[in-house]
């Protein structure tokens, strides 16, 4: 049984996955989103944050995880079996009432866009080798166990964000349902996601050289989605072992017990597929964003060129012409950078990951 909370289980990974990250180190950004009170902060606390709360001495349990009121960003450095893992955790306020729903949507979307923007600027700048990748690689989206599938809010939100971030659906508070109810709810959610054309993160097929154990684990994980988890901020003792758990009048549940909770599977999913989540962010979601951004710049400049200048004052005319010139120059610069990017791509992909310096390979990972 590993130490609780601050370990995500690299030690249990197959050797080849472990080796891949051993030299380079690894950074990863994860976000939690969903209605207020569904247990987002609690789950984050279970996955990563136990020791971030150490400084809060003798706080009552209920204060360990308070209601989130704004976007909270925390960074955690984990050293596990020789691998340096830097996790950035983005905890968002849940949408609890109709008034703040729109604000919460906007807040989260703006955050994701801002990270894309920053990355785009950095990529277009001179210091391309040292870009820090703060893009959100994974969004755990929380769904209520007591509804009858997805709410309108869930659908609206996921539709708005599925092309910007990898969505991983989570049914929270799985202790509220029987195994059969959970099974039916999972099926219903998957059906509804399909009906609404919402793209959730798809785990790629295993490589042909993966061993049987890896394939089995991967299959199990795929079949568990949406992950139905139980979270807790308290430690309990189960069969003489200390673990995180929930205490009920009829007994105690260990949140890692796979009979009741997919928490352990979620952890394995994260450790096995962090790189896939990063790849999908870089190669699909960010590329979409970039293409749209470049198209927008192009359209703006056409609109400006065709604008009627006859009614403008001389100063306005001069200003508009100058703006047009600046835009044209920006466009040229972007085209040059794009050409440079394409011409350098085969060289960087030919380099092995180990040859790259820890900061240089952000967009090649
Ligand atoms: N029964 C049950 N309760 C849970 C579980 N996880 C969290 N809770 C409880 O649910 C309440 C809300 O949890 P939070 O983690 O604060 O919820 P949140 O989604 O972060 O809420 P906001 O910050 O308001 O968006 C707390 O009282 C938790 O103890 C669970 O798996 N089962
Ligand atoms: Mg919270």
Automatic annotation (TrEMBL):
InterPro entries: G_SEPTIN_dom (IPR030379), P-loop_NTPase (IPR027417), Septin (IPR016491). Pfam families: Septin. One of its GO terms (cellular component) is cleavage furrow. Its main location: other. The keyword Cell cycle applies. Residues 24-296 form the Septin-type G domain. Residues 335-365 are annotated as: Disordered. Keywords: Cell cycle, Cell division, Coiled coil, GTP-binding, Nucleotide-binding. It is found in: Cleavage furrow. Residues 335-353 have a biased composition (Low complexity). GO terms for molecular function: GTP binding. GO terms for biological process: cell division. Belongs to the TRAFAC class TrmE-Era-EngA-EngB-Septin-like GTPase superfamily. Septin GTPase family. This is Septin.
């Amino acid at each position: 049984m590993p130490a609780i909370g601050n370990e995500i289980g690299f030690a249990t990974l197959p050797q080849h996955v472990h080796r891949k990250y051993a030299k380079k180190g690894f950074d990863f950004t994860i976000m939690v989103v969903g209605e207020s009170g569904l247990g987002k902060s609690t789950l984050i606390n279970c996955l990563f944050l136990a020791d971030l709360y150490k400084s809060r001495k003798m706080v009552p349990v209920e204060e360990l995880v308070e209601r989130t009121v704004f976007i909270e960003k925390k960074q955690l450095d984990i050293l596990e079996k020789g691998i340096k893992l830097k996790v950035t955790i983005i905890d968002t306020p849940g949408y609890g009432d109709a008034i703040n729903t729109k604000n919460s949507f906007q807040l989260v979307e703006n955050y994701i866009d801002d990270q894309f923007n920053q990355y785009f600027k950095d990529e277009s700048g001179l210091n391309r080798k040292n870009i820090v990748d703060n893009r959100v690689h994974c969004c755990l989206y929380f769904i209520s166990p007591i509804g009858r599938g997805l709410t309108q809010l869930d659908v609206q939100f996921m539709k708005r964000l599925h092309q910007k971030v990898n969505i991983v659906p989570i049914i929270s508070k799985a202790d509220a349902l029987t195994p059969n109810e959970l099974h039916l709810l999972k099926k219903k959610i998957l059906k509804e996601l399909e009906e609404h054309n919402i793209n959730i993160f798809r785990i790629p097929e295993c490589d042909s050289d993966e061993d049987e154990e890896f394939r089995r684990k991967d299959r199990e994980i795929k079949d568990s989605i949406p992950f139905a988890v139980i979270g807790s901020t308290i430690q309990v003792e189960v069969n003489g072992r200390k673990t995180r758990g929930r205490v009920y009048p009829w007994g105690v549940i260990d949140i890692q017990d796979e009979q009741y909770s997919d928490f352990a599977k979620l952890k394995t999913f994260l450790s096995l597929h962090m790189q896939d989540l990063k790849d999908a962010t870089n190669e699909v979601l960010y590329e979409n964003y970039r293409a749209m951004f470049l198209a927008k710049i192009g359209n703006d400049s056409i609109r400006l060129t065709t604008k009627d200048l006859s009614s403008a004052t001389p100063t306005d005319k001069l200003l508009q012409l100058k703006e047009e010139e600046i835009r044209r120059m920006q466009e040229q610069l972007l085209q040059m950078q794009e050409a440079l990017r394409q011409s350098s791509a085969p060289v960087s992909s030919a380099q092995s990951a180990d040859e790259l310096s820890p900061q240089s390979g952000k967009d090649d990972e």
